[in-house]
Write a structure and sequence with these properties.
Length: about 160
């Protein structure tokens, strides 16, 4: 199972587009996860053109249409692994602690999140905390996305664009 991971795209108009490198990479994905702050459903339409299975969560900057369609928190079971997805909130310094608390009863193998616009691919305890960074924020340290491959084990990587 190959999962494309993206967050914090902040696309609000049809004239704004995801980078072509991401769309090309997600064509071979079995699923795409958007970890919130898509802002409008336009980004989902772009993702669904390259991968029909797109799941996501709403973030703090998302409009009403996104919040109606996507929950704040979601848990997926994929190939025997439990994947928690939540955008996150509050100061980036406390983000991992906020997520640990939000998923404390869920026993997740991976927690996918966004909010900070900074990539993270780090195992803490038994849980992989994975933030793909922002694909489009010009003020982010870099623009990036993620790929998670699950084939009996988890292989996750951040790709800078």
């Amino acid at each position: 199972m190959k999962i494309g991971v993206i967050s914090d795209t902040h696309i609000s108009e049809q004239s704004d587009h995801l980078p072509g490198a991401i769309l090309d990479a997600f064509m071979s994905a079995d699923m795409v996860v958007h970890a919130g702050d898509m802002v409008s459903l336009e980004v989902i339409a772009q993702l669904e053109k390259v991968c029909p299975k797109v799941v996501g969560v709403s973030g703090n900057m998302d409009d009403a249409a996104v919040r109606e369609k996507y929950p704040v928190k979601q848990i997926l079971n994929i190939s025997g692994f439990k994947i928690g997805i939540m955008h996150g909130w509050g100061p980036p310094l406390n983000l991992v602690d906020i997520l640990k608390n939000a998923f404390k009863e869920d026993n997740c193998d991976i927690i996918i999140f966004g909010h900070s616009h900074e990539p993270m691919n780090e195992t803490i305890g038994k849980t992989l905390f994975f933030n793909p960074g922002s694909a489009t924020d010009k003020g982010a340290p870099c623009n990036s996305y993620g790929i998670i491959e699950i084939n009996g084990k988890i292989n996750a990587r951040i790709i800078k664009i």
